[in-house]
Amino acid sequence: MMPRNTVRIRRVAVVLIAATTLLGGCATTQSKVDPFEPWNRVMFDVNDVVDGKIAKPIAEAYVKYTPELIRRGISTFFGNIEDLFVGINNVLEGDGNRAGDDFGRVLLNSTFGVGGLFDLASMMGIERHNQDFGITFGKWGFPQGPYFFVPLIGPTTLRDGTGTVIRAYLGPTTYIFTYVPVRNVVYGIGALDLRASMLGTESMVDQAALDRYRFIRNAYLRARRYQVYDGKPPPEGDEEGQ
């Protein structure tokens, strides 16, 4: 199941899309950041077919026929798990204040929030942060490496993809639900909830982009740079491998 931070990354990317266009974001050098562009474009087209024929219609039916209260509880449950990993990454980055908020959110929502079904932490004003292993690796100085597009997962880089694999391996779902059929159902529900949360972001890309592949790639890379540098990235080209 795709970690929830991937969706947060996509949401940030969509927010930055307009700015990316206005600032000439399509000038990214292919040979440096996207050396596998021909293959990635094939995977992008494969994703369009699989997502358009299977994933998107299922997600639309889920939104249409599942009560909002239930959908919100499912999103909050998986978001509570993600808050735990956000806290871990803030510890790894040496940000004790943010980590305290993150672990506080998990404790509050896991207990009084009935196992994470209710987001009491947000109601009480405890801020939710956006952090993952890819961002942490970037702050540690690891280069992002080449860009990839993976069907049903979306845009990533070598650095971010490595972080995603680590996050998936450490996820508690594998260890809590030892009965494989139940575990697969949980994975499926989580993936469905993730896809449903992205339904509202697609029309903006379709309307704004002449080349959807390049548009999404550049928006993603700029969003990740923005996150690694806490919203204050240096001029492009001033750092190695970013």
Task: Explain the overall architecture.
- With about 240 residues, the chain is mainly alpha-helical.
- The chain has one domain.
- The longest helix is centred in the N-terminal third of the chain and has 29 residues.
SSE inventory with pairings:
Layout: H1 4-22, H2 30-33, H3 37-65, H4 68-92, H5 96-111, H6 120-123, H7 133-139, E1 147-150, E2 154-157, H8 158-170, H9 173-176, H10 180-197, H11 202-208, H12 212-228
Antiparallel strand pairs: 1-2
Short description:
By secondary structure, the protein is mainly alpha-helical. Helix content is 67%, strand content 3%. It is built from 12 helices and 2 strands; from the N terminus they run H-H-H-H-H-H-H-E-E-H-H-H-H-H.
How many domains is the backbone divided into? 1
Structural class: mainly alpha
- What average pLDDT do the residues reach? 85
Question: Shape, please?
Answer: globular
Please list the strands of the largest sheet in the order they lie side by side.
1-2
**Model regions low in confidence, pLDDT < 50 over at least 5 residues:** 9-29
* Rg (C-alpha, Å): 18 Å
Beta content: under 5%
- Count the E strands: 2
Distance between the termini: 27 Å
The helix content, as a percent range, equals 55-70%
Tell me about the biggest sheet?
2 strands, antiparallel
SSE order, one letter for each helix or strand: HHHHHHHEEHHHHH
Number of helices: 12
Task: Please identify the oligomeric state.
Answer: single chain
Descriptive keywords:
67% helix; 2 strands; two-stranded antiparallel ribbon; mainly alpha; 242 residues; globular; 12 helices
